[in-house]
Specification:
The protein is elongated and about 70 Å long. A twelve-stranded mixed sheet has the order 1-2-3-4-5-12-6-11-10-9-8-7, with helices on both faces. With 314 residues, it is an alpha+beta fold.
């Protein structure tokens, strides 16, 4: 099969969503895909999507290069590439990659990167094309029914240092929506040295607010914030990820306040809230080995991992 690779068109959304569901296990609707694309800020970030089509112009797979707003570098591009699983190993992915590589060269890209699971066709595909693993992320799960909640000792150790913990709901009741801007600044500052693909950069406030509280349905009562005086120094929060499952949205502490037990206390506050509200599990993923160790000490089990791969383009 010799597919024709062309730019993505509006008529391709149904096939795009179907292939994405099969290849990436992403349950997304055509309406949501259109809405997400419609919000993309092309004035600031590039995004190019192509499809490989058969002789009847039906998409067989898709590929994309794009800037990542939360790790923006004008010459670093993130890659997405997927082929209908029934049609793999027929040269479709190779044809898509050839077009994507031409798009990268046209833009003088320095780095192309993506995350991919171990033992998958995607990993084998990218390694053959020169991609190298540079970071590893771990998926961890906490069973709340058996999780140790040794919160009293953690609370005492932190409060003795003059640190207090409250919820975002409590903070907003006192400061109004201005508190969200301070939370946004903390969110970025506590992640700036996070191990990941690229370097963490600040997202515009309104984008961050929409994603965290509208799209992910962030829970203000389960968004715990640590502060010293008027300074916000750490936070931990979750969002729903199923009927009785939560996923960690962030656990972050400013660099100069780390290793003082703040992250441990914040996580225990989240665990206590989740158990009291009937949740069964908390899921999280991180490439930070210190956080992996903290999670393990708090009862999380590692259930999987995947690599972050980069291709240096000369």
């Amino acid at each position: 099969m010799t597919p024709r690779v062309r730019l993505f068109a509006d008529r391709d959304y149904a096939a795009f969503v179907r292939i994405r569901r099969l290849a990436e296990q992403r349950d997304i609707s055509v309406a949501v895909a259109r809405e997400q694309d419609g919000r993309w800020d092309h004035s600031r970030y590039e995004q190019v999507r192509v499809v490989a089509a058969d002789e009847e112009d039906a998409p067989l797979g898709y590929g994309e290069i794009h800037h990542e707003p939360s790790r923006f570098d004008p010459r670093r591009y993130f890659i997405r590439l997927a082929v209908d699983p029934r049609l793999r190993r027929q040269g479709i992915g190779a044809a898509i990659w050839t077009q994507l590589r031409a798009e990268l060269d046209e833009r003088s890209a320095k780095v192309a990167c993506l995350w991919t699971d171990d033992g998958t066709a995607c990993r084998e595909f990218v390694v053959r094309r020169g991609f190298v693993e540079v970071v590893r992320s771990y998926e961890q799960v906490l069973a709340l029914a058996t999780a140790p909640l040794q919160i009293a000792a953690a609370e005492q150790a932190v409060t003795a240092r003059g640190i207090r913990v409250e919820t975002l709901s409590e903070l907003r009741a006192r400061e109004g929506d201005e508190s969200l801007k301070r939370i946004h600044e903390l969110y970025t500052a506590s992640r700036v040295d996070q191990p990941t693909l690229g370097t963490v950069t600040a997202r515009p406030f309104e984008e961050w607010r929409r994603e965290v509280f509208d799209e992910l349905h962030g829970l203000p009562d389960a968004y715990f914030v640590a502060s010293e005086g008027e300074r916000l120094v750490g936070c931990s929060a979750v969002h729903p990820s199923g009927e009785d499952v939560l996923r960690i949205l962030i656990t972050g502490v400013l660099p100069e306040y780390r290793r003082q037990g703040i992250a441990r206390l914040l996580k225990l506050r989240v665990h206590t809230w989740a158990r009291s509200h009937g949740y069964r599990e908390i899921h999280t993923s991180t490439a930070n080995v210190a956080v992996v160790a903290l999670n393990t000490a708090l009862g999380y089990a590692i259930v999987g991992s995947w690599g972050g791969y980069e291709l240096a383009i000369r």
